[in-house]
Write a structure and sequence with these properties.
By secondary structure, this protein is mainly α. The protein has one domain (2-231): Glycerol uptake facilitator protein (Up-down Bundle), CATH 1.20.1080.10. It has 8 helices and no strands. It has helices at 2-32, 38-64, 70-78, 84-109, 130-151, 161-180, 186-196, 198-231. The longest helix has 34 residues, at 198-231. The radius of gyration is 17 Å and the shape is globular. The termini are far apart.
Length: 233
């Protein structure tokens, strides 16, 4: 139960600070006519997500591993690093944590609309089509999850793993934000979408399915290439 509580807290923090920063930045830019350069705003949002992971990795990482992402837990399940029972418990805790984080944002900002939701088409800054959005989310999740599988498999990286993972999350956000707002995390997308409803909820299927596909591909590549090399040393 401690592991599940840790995953709940971690996902709640990720959504609160990551999605909250995205919502606040976009609101300020809209109300004040691009108050900051777009690239600078995207960097701020990207690092808000990344630093949230860093903070949680060094606080709850020794309890649950700080997955705070069903896609990460799915990859861990596929590679035998997580059991089926824990996988179910982790995902439930992560989804509830995402909802709690979105709930806090609704209280903070006095609205349940927006809240850093993901989207494509008219909900995308670039007007990204659904197929392209699916590909973007799959590729970004693949890169992110493959890094996690690799860095957590090496004991010599244990002290810096949280920092590396957080920076990689910021890294994939920098590219993905204009396309979809960057999900790579079903729980991060589902919580705000449920509270928002409407278009965000209609499109959330993509931000659940694509990250899971990307995670499965990452797990396959890890099992075929990285795990054998690690075990041989």
């Amino acid at each position: 139960m401690k592991k599940y509580i840790a995953e709940f807290i971690g996902t709640c923090v990720l959504v609160t600070f990551g999605c909250g920063s995205a919502f606040a930045a976009n609101t300020v830019a809209t109300d004040n006519g691009a108050a900051a350069p777009l690239a600078f705003t995207q960097l701020l949002i990207a690092f808000a997500f990344g630093l949230s992971i860093v903070a949680m990795a060094y606080s709850i990482g020794n309890v649950s591993g700080c997955h705070v992402n069903p896609a990460v837990s799915f990859a861990m399940l596929l590679t035998g690093k997580l059991g089926g029972k824990d996988f179910v418990g982790y995902v439930i805790a992560q989804v509830l944590g995402g909802l709690a984080g979105a709930g806090l944002l609704a209280i903070f900002f006095g609205t349940n609309k927006g809240l850093g939701t993901n989207g494509y088409g008219e909900a995308s800054a670039l007007g990204t089509t659904a197929p392209v959005a699916f590909l973007v989310e799959t590729v970004l999740t693949f890169v992110f999850v493959l890094l996690i599988l690799g860095v957590t498999s090496k004991a010599e990286f244990s002290n810096v793993a949280g920092l590396i993972i957080g920076l990689t999350l910021a890294f994939v956000h920098i590219l993905g934000i204009p396309f979809t707002g960057t999900s790579v995390n079903p729980a991060r997308s589902l919580g705000p979408a449920i509270l928002d409803g409407g278009l965000a909820l209609q499109q959330v299927w993509l931000f659940i399915l694509a990250p899971l596909v990307g995670a499965a591909i990452a797990a396959g590549v890890y099992a075929a290439l990285i795990a054998p090399a690690t075990e041989s040393k």
